[in-house]
Input
Amino acid sequence: MIREFKTNEHTYKFVCKSYGTRTGFNHHAEMYKDSYPYSIIENTCHYINRTWECREFDTVINGCVDELKRKREAKLKETFKYENNIKRMTTKTKLQFEEIVKNDDEIKELNELKSVIRGY
Output
């Protein structure tokens, strides 16, 4: 199954599949951005019994977006700490970092994608 979502700037395509395992079944999703030929991230969710989702593959699609967001925040944090020669984050530096995350274009795009997925 292919699900496509459009934000203001980009088109995201999720190629989803389901397959059985010895103990249940898996949902797997690969995320593609615009016309980039390789997946930018993948996510798999294992289910042991029958599970109800509002929309099929909802968990793995949101998992892809959440993982990208976590990776972006980790990269921003690493860069922030390196540029400011910080070993540990204090309350003041945490506030500065939160402001950077809030203003980051890629994080804004992923938040917009999450809202588009929720409204689908």
Notes: The mean pLDDT is 92. The longest strand covers residues 11-20. Residues 76 and 100 are 8 Å apart (CA to CA).
